[in-house]
User: Which sequence fits this backbone?
């Protein structure tokens, strides 16, 4: 039986396209299938690059082109026990192949992603020449913003200017502490010219002209009719306090006042408007609670806009981020649509600092995160020791972070760097776990532009995706370049929560001519399928009581030792030697028997 379908599209452009009718034979299943993916063999029929599918109601459905022969369509409904019909269009119509929309899960490693990328001409501000006030140190920075961190542009002679205030020091006995505040100007936020009358605030102007004393700027906010600068005031190497100053023109600063001195060291303030009360301010800062506690952590304090010099230390919630045995320092916080994003710095390894981001729905009880935002530089670069003190800004479509950098082994910050928020294609971010030497490559890709390259090493290269549910098919593609390298392995495995992991693989230890497999609890076995150069599809068909494992749609073995009701993750993993490749991971629905398709 073939169901009648409508004769005409509402869209005259679609109505003019050539069509083919496709019979969907679901007589083997009495139940109706919903949002089910079916494969259509389009070889020798039409130009598959222009394939489009519509259901019996002439509604366009999602589809994905597997290769030149097979296209997959996700049908909203397939009637049980019958043969139904859909249509395939071909011609010039702008409906793109979309694996993410078609399947239950899909990764092709090609998605666009934004990431912060270091500016090629870093540092944008460097120490001055011999004898200048900032000869030895260039450190923290701030641009004037309103309380919502929207930039305030200052009118220059030709264009609106960015005014960047920064911390600097000359050739003194203790230049990392004996710092003052300077100004640099730019019309593009990348190229700055230092102000001719620097420093705009000399440390001696506020009574901090002694040994080991100085100022560091971390934030500038316009509140009411004034600009307020939030500073760290260093009274000695062990006495750091948070202070404020005010100005109406950003050049003349006054009313130096210590506003927070609750701990052994209070440091690096950053201020936002309280998202829950527009009359209040929240300050985030890093601190050491006592001389006996060696590690920084992050805290908060609050004030009213009407009394911006009066701050209350949060004794209930502090610290809001603390990691035992690690310095957690230099906070920056932004609030966006119900989420607080906290940028902070920590040691990823000995004598290095990098910038990370963690998020929470409240601004207390943040968790540690390894979401790396700015890494320290490669050996020999100007920032190969530290990349810290992040300050993020936005102007229209431009997003960027300034940061402070210093050389490995030095205790002096020697420049301000820039990272820009740039659109890139190709990402591994959709995988839940990436370990070892794993990277994107354009030399081997099954679909789209990017595949994954696995370089063998002491840490086995792998990607992993969490999965759940039976009556599904889990698939990926691996590339076989016919390597005979010793101890080379490229395996595809499906795990349950008990650690059972049936697999299929290229493994030169067991065979250089055939693909191999290992059932759960069994030994490595050479399959009857000969190796051949090119891409090969690996499929795990997870049913109620067993799992069928295929290579290129050829059954390799049936697995009964996997707990189909308690799956954990899907893994592609290399070994100690050689280079392997994979691409495209998808999950689709499964029923037995599966519906078949025939183009009329």
Assistant:
């Amino acid at each position: 039986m073939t169901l009648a379908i409508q004769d005409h599209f509402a869209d005259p452009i679609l109505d003019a396209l050539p069509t083919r009718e496709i019979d969907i034979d679901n007589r083997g299943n009495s139940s109706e299938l919903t949002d089910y993916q079916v494969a259509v063999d389009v070889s020798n029929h039409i130009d598959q690059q222009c394939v489009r599918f519509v259901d019996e109601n002439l509604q366009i459905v999602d589809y994905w082109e597997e290769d030149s022969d097979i296209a997959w369509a996700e049908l909203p409904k397939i009637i049980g026990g019958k043969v139904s019909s859909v249509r395939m269009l071909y011609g010039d119509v702008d409906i793109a192949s979309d694996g993410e929309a078609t399947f239950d899960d899909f990764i092709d490693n090609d998605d666009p992603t934004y990431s912060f990328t270091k500016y090629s001409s870093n540092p944008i501000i460097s120490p001055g020449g011999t004898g200048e006030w900032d000869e030895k140190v260039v450190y923290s920075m701030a641009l004037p913003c309103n309380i919502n961190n929207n930039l305030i542009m200052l009118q220059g002679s030709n264009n609106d200017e960015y005014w960047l205030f920064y911390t600097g020091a000359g050739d003194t006995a203790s230049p990392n502490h004996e710092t003052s505040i300077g100004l640099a100007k730019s019309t593009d936020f990348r190229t700055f010219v230092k102000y001719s009358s620097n420093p705009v605030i000399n440390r001696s102007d506020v009574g901090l002209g002694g040994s080991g004393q100085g100022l560091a700027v971390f934030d500038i906010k316009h509140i009411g009719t004034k600009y307020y600068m939030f500073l760290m005031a260093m009274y000695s190497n062990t006495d750091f306090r948070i202070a404020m100053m005010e100005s109406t023109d950003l050049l003349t600063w006054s009313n130096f006042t210590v506003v927070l001195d609750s701990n052994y060291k209070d440091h690096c303030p950053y201020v936002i408007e309280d998202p829950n009360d527009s009359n209040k301010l929240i300050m985030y800062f890093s601190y050491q609670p006592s001389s006996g506690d060696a590690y920084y952590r992050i805290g908060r304090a609050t004030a009213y806009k009407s009394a911006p010099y009066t701050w209350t230390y949060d004794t209930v919630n502090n610290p809001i981020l603390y990691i035992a045995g690690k310095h957690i320092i230099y906070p920056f916080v932004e609030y966006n649509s119900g989420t607080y994003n906290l940028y902070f710095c920590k040691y990823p390894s000995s004598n290095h600092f990098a910038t990370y981001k963690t998020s929470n729905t409240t601004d207390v009880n943040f968790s540690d995160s390894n979401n790396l935002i700015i890494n320290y530089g490669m050996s020999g670069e100007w920032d190969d020791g530290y990349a810290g003190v992040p300050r993020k800004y936005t102007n229209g479509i431009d997003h960027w972070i300034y940061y402070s950098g210093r050389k490995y082994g030095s205790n002096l910050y020697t420049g301000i760097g820039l990272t820009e928020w740039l659109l890139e294609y190709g990402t591994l971010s959709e995988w839940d776990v990436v370990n070892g030497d794993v990277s994107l490559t354009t030399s081997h890709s099954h679909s789209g532009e990017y595949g994954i390259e696995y370089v063998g090493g002491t840490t086995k290269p792998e990607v992993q995706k969490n999965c759940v549910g039976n009556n599904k098919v889990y698939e990926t593609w691996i590339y076989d370049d016919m390597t005979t390298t010793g101890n080379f392995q490229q395996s595809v495995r499906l795990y349950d929560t008990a650690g059972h992991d049936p697999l299929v693989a290229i493994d030169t230890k067991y065979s250089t001519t055939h693909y191999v497999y290992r059932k759960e609890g069994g030994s490595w076995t050479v399959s009857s399928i000969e190796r051949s150069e090119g891409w090969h599809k690996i499929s795990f068909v997870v049913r109620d009581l067993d799992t069928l494992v295929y290579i290129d749609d050829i059954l390799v073995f049936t697995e009964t030792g996997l707990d189909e009701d308690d799956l954990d993750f899907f893994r592609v993993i290399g070994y100690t030697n050689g280079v392997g490749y994979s691409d495209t991971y998808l999950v689709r629905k499964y029923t037995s028997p599966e519906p078949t398709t025939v183009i009329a």
Summary: The helical segments are 12-15, 99-102. The longest strand covers residues 226-236.
